[in-house]
Amino acid sequence: MSLNEVAGGLVRSLLWFAVIFALVAVAIQVAKKFRGRSSEEEAFDSSEAMTNFRDLHARGGLSDEEYQHIKKKLASEVRSSLNKDA
Prior knowledge:
The chain is an all-alpha fold. It has three helices and no strands. Helix content is 87%, strand content 0%. It has helices at residues 3-35, 39-58, 64-85.
């Protein structure tokens, strides 16, 4: 097995991990909307999700653009949920 084959397999694995992680995050968000969780729990979950995405970005699983997009989206969700309570 050549180095290119190994590197290609690693890249594919990382991409699949990122896709699966994103799908799980979306599924969690959908489930939360149907379960009617409180905004404090949503803010905590968004914070926890941000930590997970930050780690994924640090490992190279997300590009800078993807990470910034996710970060902005989660920040707006947290602000929106906090404004609903106010």
